[in-house]
Write the structure tokens for this entry.
Amino acid sequence: MPAVPFDYEAPRTLQEAVELLGAWGEEAKPLAGGQSLVPLLTLRLVRPRVVVDLAGLDELKGVVREDGMVRIGALVRHRSLERGEGPLRLCPVLQEAASLVGNVRVRTLGTLGGSLAHADPAAELPAAVRALDGEIVVRGREGERTVPASAFFTGVLATALRPGELVTAVRVPVLGERTGWAVEEFSRRAGDFAIVASVALVQLDPLGRIAGARVALAGVGPTPQRVESVEAALRGERAAVETVREVVAACPLEIDPESDIHASAAYRRHLARVLTVRALGRALLRAGRSHREEDP
Amino acid sequence: MRDVQVRLTLNGEERRIRAPAHRTLLQVLRDDLGMTDVKEGCGEGVCGTCTVLLDGEPVSSCLVLIGRIDGRDVVTLRGLAEGGRVHPLQVAFATHGAAQCGFCTPGMILTAYAFLRDHPRPTREEIRRAIAGNLCRCTGYTKIVDAIAAAGRDGGGIRDAG
Amino acid sequence: MPGEARSAPSGDGMRGRGGRSGRRSPVTVPARPLRVVGRPITRHDAWDKVQARTLYGADWHMPGMLHGAVLRSPYPAARIRHIDTSAARLLPGVAAVLTARDVPRNTLWTDVPGQTTAVGPLRARLHVLADEVVRYQGEPVALVAAETPELAQEALELIRVEYEPTPGVFDPEEALRPGAPPVHPEGNLLARWRIRCGDVEEGLREADVVVEQTYRCQVVDHAYLEPEAGVAWVDADGVLTIRVSTQVIEHYRDVAEVLGLPHNKVRVIGAYVGGGFGGKEDVTVEAFLGLLAWRTRRPVRMVWSRQESLLARPKRHPFVMRYRTGARRDGTLVAQQVELLADSGAYAYLSALVLMYAAVTAAGPYRVPHVEVTARVAYTNNPPTSAMRGFGAMQVVWGYESQIDQVARRLGLDPVEVRARNALHKGDALPVGQRLETHVAVSEALERAWAALGPRRAPSGPHRRVGRGVACNLQPYGRIVWLHDWASAWVGYEMDGTVVVRTGVPDVGGGQASSLCQIAAEVLGVDPERVSVHIADSALTPLAGTTTATRQLYMSGNAVLEAARQLRQQVLPVAAALLEASPAQVDLEGGDAVAPDGRRVALARVMQECARLGVPRSALGVYRAPAGDPVEFERGGGRVFPDYTFGAHAAEVEVDTETGAVSVLRYVACHDVGRAINPQSVEGQIQGGAVMGLGYALLEEVVLDRGTNLTTSLASYLIPTAEDVPDVEPVILESGDGQGPFGARGIGEPPIGPPAAAVANAIEDAVGVRITELPMTPERVARALGLLG
């Protein structure tokens, strides 16, 4: 259907964009990749007075290595993440997560910042950024601030963005030595939103035992959930799939999913365990490989 | 501003358009420019019938606001055929029975075109993944994969077009 | 005469063809081999479609065209207290706002054949626009036409409707209990059918094993890629013309009734359809377009959004099916007792017929001496259900093919053998009393499908199990014989020897038009490229009936064959005279008339001579299907359908035993199509139908919550993508023993029947659990495996 008519602004600088969004407040919507916003517009579900198109903001498109982190501009496309172009090759977790997002067209236009700002509980990239303990750089009229991933997602389709604020970049750590990762997603069809997804990272110590683990789940709550009980229980354990299986089976996953037309709460809880074991298993394999590569 | 003015290259030709900003590329192509070779199947970017190549990459034209198009290059199915000749992919689709009702066909061919350009000689699995975002309700996909595989095998000028 | 000699009707004449490139070995001793029919030529419309030259319903523009839109009820059950259209009418750029009172005759009637007033209304009412009551969410309440689509939407939002929600009923079982809110004043039972043969209680007592099970299958949507669309205008002669995406151009009569116009002042032109599957069989936009165009005297376009289509268009009937199947120790079936309950939703549409198809085929393609089928369909306040590919005969496959598999398992017998043992043969009678007069290919299809699976795959990893299953089916082709179906076609030579075919057939993508082209080319001795086909214009093409019920190749194929034969008979003597030969020895080939000694004269020359002699260069063919009277199902019944298509599918699946996910690794679909007029088209129908069936089996569901539709987006209504299904290997059998042209049988609907049961049988083979509810989602399988505690 045709959208309800709106004014269109195409700022050339970040400062301009921030001014516009600050001035219009709730009546303005920022447009990044458009894969989430435009359908809402053409279904006439969202009726802003102004759409502020961010496409011209080159400041938001760069990828730069900053010490032990990679700073990724909010407008970097899923397709670029998937292809691991340039410094993005240092972000294999985002690479794997991005490859699971939607279909080829969504990945051509969809952006990292857009995905995070949209904060769909079943989306892969928010869970990946959460698992990485990433930081979201945000800018408003009052200036720039950095929000840790643990505080950024506040509810279903809700974030810590204040009115008039934009996501400008995401910072994620470069993975350390002997670190493996995996993203395991379960969806009804390839390319659909996850019913449940599990993002796992494992780092081995020089002796090959698990030095640390991170697990973040999508689809089991209003926001991506870290599973600290599993993370804690794995520390110091043998790097074996059987161990992982036992640990996950014994852990009370501190999640409280809801039932909906796609899956019941019980099934989501079940999938959370299965996918976490699978993700940790693959992460261990990768960690083992990188372990072997580094210690000849 | 309520209206936008954009200059774009459409199937190799420069066009200037003035349109209300709330219109999508799909709506402008179909309603203002009469380009019936792009379809509307769902309005949500899911079905793939509105696929066009934007700067060479497949996008859902129903999800692109017209203001975004300034200075860009858009190719629809009609832009694939050069000088009125039919592109090898189009031949492959026709001769392999890959078009039944034909509604998914323009989007499917454009998607296949971009894919084969970047991945010559793909496996059937790779083809299926590449077209997973283009829904078809008539063929069951087997003959579409046959056609794309055949076009991939035979190469046939896909690398140089558009 | 080409193609007249046919293969022997029974088993020894049977040859098969497999795979994508199958070479066909002629099995017959024909007068001469077929040249065009039977070749997998590229369809003429395929060239248009790959270049996007085809103009679908929404691709038509006319000067001064208005945009139409529909206001729909948000409530599944409510009284309409008041409609205020004043603000909408005042909006500049709005040309018309219509409600029920603006519709000259606001009621369309559906005939409910074979029912008595004791069961339900003989004629079921459908309103064009809701009058005092709305009965389902999405029911049309008002129409607007405006200068732009934006204004049309704005106008819709300005219409104020005061609804008073009323209690609704959303389950057919509940609807049939005393005290349930009546959806229609006459009560909620719409139709009932009973079929009896033998004594089923006796049969069940005699049986060594009785399998009793209840099956449920869900509401699904056609989800064609092209949403409903059309344009209407009043032409220079005052004829209301509607160009629309439709399976039925005869709806011009319905529109005429609604508007109170003479039938000959309404014309429907059928555009090439972007998928129908039964969803464009009932009136969609036609009446609305007619009303708006007639009121404004301007062209009006209406295109429905996908969300609108998913919300409110009639869908497939869900069924609750209770089966009791009795068999002897050796696997012979002795009894089938079946109870069917379907949901008609808020309006009857074609529900009574869908129910009847289900009842007639409910026992499966098997010899069963004792059968009892009791079928009912009830009104609810759910979205209406109507025609969808398979039309009732498809849903019951889920029941009878799950049942026979379990019979086999219980008895420790091979599932393929048990089916073959019980399969019907030519000459047997169905429980409804109809004798099968053509070859029944069930056994061959089972063998071929099963064999084509090849070596069993190993599981792809830990926690994976592989299993195999088969299912066979019967699906009627051609409409019920009591409807006295007929189709007509006009075929003519131009002066230059090219050929024109005119027939009212709507083409929904299955190659309906191009098959006719091949038939005409075969008989008239020209290349298919020299045949031009004009279809689907109620004013200009002889009517051929609906593109539904797998009838079009059968009916209009025979009509074209009839016309072409007549025409051939007209011109042969003229050609023979030119060649100084006898007509019986002259052939038509490659655009020429050919004498036995090889001398040729161009058809153009023959046409000149025809013109000189006053011999007509065209013929009108009318094919009448075998007709009959309605039969009494409860008293021995008789013939219901002209014929049936038989087939069998085999599936190999892998089940993830940790998640319940089912992956189809390999799929083979085998059908006896009598004769494949265009083998490539036949393969395409088989593959497309099988994949639609796999969607039904594993993915698709219209989720309704007390009449509220929760799946009104293609993101939530899940149809298979290319990654969700494997290659479908089609295996074509050609018995030559069908009622269509050259012995063809229909193939549009049959392939959608077996997949659900084939997959369920494969799942049981893999992991030992029987799923009895569709779709077989991973969660359902996980539950059955006990994974969720």
About this structure: The CA atoms of residues 97 and 125 of chain A lie 6 Å apart. Chain A has eleven helices and 14 strands. The first strand of chain A starts at residue 7 and ends at 9. Residues 179-294 of chain A form a domain with the Enolase-like; domain 1 fold (CATH 3.30.390.50).
